[in-house]
Amino acid sequence: MKTTTTFIERTDSTWRPRCVYWSPSTGDLLVGMYTIDTGKVTRYNQSGQLTQTIQYHNTGRGLYSIPRYITENNNGDVVVSDLSGAVVVTERGGRHRFSYTGHPSGSRLVPLGICTDALSHILVCDVITHTVQMINKDGQFLSHLLTKSQEMGESWSLRYDVNTHRLWVGSGSRDNKVCVYRYITRQDALTDEHRPLPDGDTRYTTPRQNKSHQLNENKLLF
């Protein structure tokens, strides 16, 4: 706590940092930044040196508008919740993999908090539907994990705890609370055993799993 490393020191007002994520696998710091009508993700090593900039699609157009939240998946993908109305996913090297814009296809998405879990699923808070949506690492919709409820209200931010396999969800400013949910057991994380339901949702099943621990459609159980 006695050492301070400066990663970004603004000398002008062109680019503004908006969100950060520290990578436990590489020790790098990922920073989402923005300027007028465009955004980018920068990567810094532990010494504070800029090592990568992710900004453009392979067609030359910009990938981001304003990165709101940023995280990293288990395979090294950089996952960004962007103001443009999309979850933008790139490979560690910066190549664009996909952009998720909601379910069903063509729906509006206003993404806020985002995280990934032990099974490499991407979880994102959506302001439009007031849900936490889960997609797989390749962008396929899997389930609505959490709908607007009396207990939660509007979900704005979230984080997955890799040690306890719990999902921490922060509500909007009017609700002013954090709720903790369980939808994966430790055995799920170790075996990656799950089966799709007919409606596209996912219920995790292991020999040790109890019904009260299963992910029911449209809600999470405490």
Walk me through what this model shows:
With 222 residues, the chain is mostly beta strands. It is 3% helix and 42% strand. The protein has 1 helix and 17 strands. The protein has one helix at 186-191; strands spanning 16-22, 29-35, 38-44, 50-54, 67-72, 78-82, 86-90, 96-100, 111-116, 122-126, 131-135, 141-146, 155-161, 166-171, 178-182, 194-196, 202-204. The strands form 5 sheets. The protein has a 4-stranded antiparallel beta sheet, with no helix packed on it. The longest helix has 6 residues, at 186-191. The chain is globular. The chain starts with 15 loop residues before the first strand and ends in an 18-residue tail after the last strand. The relative contact order is 0.10.
